[in-house]
């Protein structure tokens, strides 16, 4: 990890590959880490290939499905991204990240009802997710449901989401008087 934090991605990849060869660790986890080094360099196709290896190595490694979905989004393949986020949920329905990723895609595609559904599921897992609360609030805003919008944007603010502050101000809601 120190290699990556110092920007030495190639050194990190060499370390991770040696760990895979030692057979003492989960290969899927190290393939995922190698993918992360390529992702951090903006080399999304290479990252995708390692994330795919992580999935092949361990079909229950939910983070790999999310990472594959992320890379497909970066490569402008929304259909494959959606497919992998949905697979992640099938692998582990209690992992919040794919619900939020799906909600972001649905919200950006003006599929606000689907975004709401994903956010509600995410918030059952973690009610304090600033991102899920924010996306839910914005989806309700797009649907013309101002009361629900304000409720979830306020919750997002409490959870630390700065974007929600701006949205609430734009709606004329003074946060100094009553955040909750």
From TrEMBL:
Alphabetized Pfam families for the sequence: TPR_8 (PF13181)
TPR repeats: 28-61, 62-95, 96-129
UniProt KW keywords: Repeat, TPR repeat
Record has Methyltransferase as a keyword: no
Domain of life: Bacteria
InterPro entries linked: CellSynth/LPSAsmb/PSIAsmb, TPR-like_helical_dom_sf, TPR_rpt
UniProt protein name: Uncharacterized protein
Organism this protein belongs to: Endomicrobium trichonymphae
